Each structure stands twice: as C-alpha cells, then as structure tokens.
C-alpha cells in the first residue's frame, strides 16, 4: 500500500515536471493516452495508488525510459 506522503511526492514530481516542460494537462493527457480529467484528478491527489499513473506520465514526458516500470 502506498503511503500518503509517497503519493504526494509522486504527484508533485509529475506536476513540476509537466510545468517545467511547459506542458498543459491536456498535452500530458494526450501524450500518456488518457483523458484530460485523469491528469486533473491525479494532480488533485484523487487517484490512488498514484505510482502506476505517475510512471506512465513520466514516461510520456521522456523522464523515464518506457517500460522500465512495467
């Protein structure tokens, strides 16, 4: 089970990475193959566990090699 602080850290990492790259939530959603509300819900800490989706988002932004966490 994911600890709440781990979830917050993952969400913060994805959100900061997205912002640093100048991406909108819509752009991240498209790149990750999900609907924009999924990104919004993720960043609002409404999705648990967060790790699988965080890794998918980080892969979509080129921050981790695809398939590393599959």
Number of discrete helical segments = 4
Structural class: mainly alpha
Rounded mean pLDDT is 90
Mind telling me the C-alpha Rg? 11 Å
Q: What would you call the shape?
A: globular
Describe the structure.
By secondary structure, this protein is an all-alpha fold. The protein contains four helices and no strands. The chain has helices at 4-20, 25-32, 36-43, 51-60. The mean pLDDT is 90.
Question: Any chance you could write out the topology, listing elements then pairs?
Answer:
Elements: H1 4-20, H2 25-32, H3 36-43, H4 51-60
Helix pairs in contact: 1-4, 2-3, 2-4
Please give a handful of descriptors for the protein shown.
single chain, globular, 4 helices, 70 residues, mainly alpha
Report a brief summary of the structure.
With 70 residues, the chain is mainly alpha-helical.
